[in-house]
Amino acid sequence: SYQTIQFDIREGVATLTLDRPAVMNALNRAMRAEITQALTTLPPEVRAVVLTGVGRGFCSGQDLTDAGAAADLEAVLRAEYEPMLAAITGCPVPVIAAVNGVAAGAGANLALAADVVIATESASFIQAFTRIGLIPDAGGTWIVPRAVGLARAMGMMLFADAISARQAADWGLIWQALPDDQFAAGIAARAQALARGPTGAFLAIRAALAASFSQDLPAQLDLEARLQGEAGRSADFAEGVAAFLQKRPPVFTGR
Ligand code: T3D
Questions:
Q1: Residue 10 C-alpha to ligand 1 middle, in angstroms?
Q2: How much is the average pLDDT of 75-81?
Q3: Does 250 reside within a domain?
Q4: Whether ipTM exceeds 0.95
Q5: Ligand 1 pocket, residue 106 CB under 6 Å
Q6: Atom of ligand 1 at shortest distance to CA of 126?
Q7: pLDDT tens for each residue of 176-235
Q8: Tell me, what CATH number does 228's domain have?
Q9: 252 — alpha (psi -120 to 50), left (phi > 0) or beta?
Q10: What does the H/E/C string look like for 215-237?
Q11: Residues 122 and 234 in one domain
């Protein structure tokens, strides 16, 4: 079992809860390792992952008590952050970040690495790095400009303002901001929808959207054809069509 996270599986949904509430779930070495471990050893019954935090914060980024000025940040990023991010962006099932409170520094970019980000309205996103003399890492300089454009990315990163969940949703940085009293039920419903969905199609969508940023339209059409070919051979496609014709809800198995 884990020291810095909680990990539980229910009805096909694995919930990974960052659990160092006294420091707003700051990422230390143990937590990075445990997140990576949990996401790279998912049992086959898991069809969706929810990433969230204990207490009033989602994640405050790098644990600043654990990073002396002498620390070799490049080495830490390469050895610990990159595998953790790869475990999210390459997770074999879709990942929802359920941002229950402030997400700062690498904690913001950890959330933004998920496939879908849903925040509670009292949450906020802070590219806090320049406050301590650093640059955004954990994929932030890749995902943020793609989501919100250069002007907003620059403003967020140079000024380190707290961006409210609602602002983040209006800008397209995240999928949705939910009223606090609807957050838990909203997350559960979305997680169930993903866990009962066509997993292969979800992963192919992730791959196609990621590729769209670095290739031209002919190459993208080629990729779509290839991925759709695979989807067309899946049991879930056969089931989806059969269910439609029989006027009943589909029962997808993720195969
Ligand atoms: O390896 C490397 O170093 C490279 C990687 C770098 C990646 C990074 O993430 S760098 C950016 C690191 N994160 C930050 O700079 C954010 C620091 N935290 C904050 O700005 C604020 O705490 C928050 C905006 C997140 C929350 O503010 P607030 O006012 O709601 O809460 P608070 O009172 O500041 O925090 C509560 C406690 O958590 C407090 O401890 P205390 O006083 O009750 O004993 C605070 O010190 C602690 N805490 C918050 N963030 C961190 C932290 N302790 C260690 N590390 C943290 N990042």
A1: 31
A2: 96
A3: no
A4: yes
A5: yes
A6: 24
A7: 999 999 999 999 999 999 999 999 999 999 999 999 999 999 999 999 999 999 999 999
A8: 1.10.12
A9: beta
A10: CCHHHHHHHHHHHHHHHHCCHHH
A11: no
Kindly state if the Cβ of 128 falls inside 6 Å of ligand 1: yes
Q: Tell whether 251 is covered by a domain.
A: no
pLDDT of 100 strictly over 70: yes
One-letter amino acid of 34: E
Q: Do residue 188 and residue 224 come from a single domain?
A: no
Of the three residues 195, 212, 227, the one that is the final residue of a domain is: 195
Label the pairing between strands 124-126 and 5-10.
unpaired
Q: 122 lies in which domain range?
A: 5-195
182 shares a domain with 114 = yes
* Ligand 1 centroid to residue 63 C-alpha, Å: 7
80 C-beta closer than 6 A to ligand 1? no
Residue pair 157/144 in contact (Cβ under 8 Å)? The answer is yes
Mean pLDDT over residues 165-171, rounded?
98
User: What confidence category does residue 70 fall into, taking pLDDT thresholds of 50, 70 and 90?
Assistant: low
